[in-house]
Amino acid sequence: MSTLPNNLKKISLFLERLPGIGEKTANRLAFYFLRLPEEDLKDFSESISTLKEKTKFCKNCFNLTEDSLCEICLDSKRDHSIITVVETVLDLLSFETGNIYDGVYHVLQGKIDPLNHVGPDDIKINELFKRIKAAGEVKEIILATSPDMEGEATAMFIKNKLSELTDSRIKALKITRLAYGLPIGANLEYADYMTLKKAIEGRNKF
Fold it and tell me: 3-class SS at 53?
């Protein structure tokens, strides 16, 4: 019985661990790597080997970046008075597809999920409050967590905590929630940009 060489088999087995990749697809990808020009393979392997070292969180919004601040936070053309709160960087990328939004973001790096022992202190909620207090120009917070039970709980927690703050400037903040153009129980990363466009246009006071 013919088997793959050990090094090729190791690559294939690793690829099988990736989301949505089965054994046959993993084998095809491993053979694809084998056929790549040496220079391309070296560039790819270097990117993989330095991924953790070079990739960090933006100190302002917790988007991924290679510098202290991400490109979005550094962009003076964007409206820094509107902050959209999302769960993950993948959700942020969904908004950035199609140029439907010109504000900035805050990435929570998760959502409140008691069943999996994830509380408010385990994600970047406190950092959001500190950011709002420190930034004088914020006028609106769009709560764009996913429309499932955990996403709703996270949005409600943020709304309630903001309403408890005594700062008059924060009390004047407009707090909105994405309109329900999105299917209940869906994840934002799978939504097409037109659905997101309609959802953000039809957002309501929350």
Answer: helix
